[in-house]
Write a structure and sequence with these properties.
It is built from two helices and no strands. It is mainly alpha-helical. InterPro entries: SS18_N (IPR007726).
């Protein structure tokens, strides 16, 4: 199950930290690999569920990035 999936009653209460973001990025990496593998085997319809999860994860990450005040984001060195 995606680390982004949170039951309705708990939404808005989760703490976003570096570990959560890293797990989410790793999950996205795995989802992309699964999608590519399914597509290369001609099973594009089987990867739809993974595409939905990836989309949800990306929207979640974008929402966090948009809500983060400028100057507080870490940059890669």
């Amino acid at each position: 199950m995606s680390v982004v999936f949170v039951p309705e009653r708990l939404r808005g209460k989760a703490e976003v930290n570096q570990d959560t973001l890293q797990r989410l990025l790793e999950e996205n990496d795995q989802l992309i690999r699964c999608i590519v593998e399914y597509q290369s085997k001609g099973r594009a319809t089987d990867c739809v569920q993974y595409q939905h999860i990836l989309h949800r994860n990306l929207i979640y990450l974008a929402t966090i990035a948009d809500a983060t005040p400028p100057g507080t984001q870490k940059t890669a060195d």
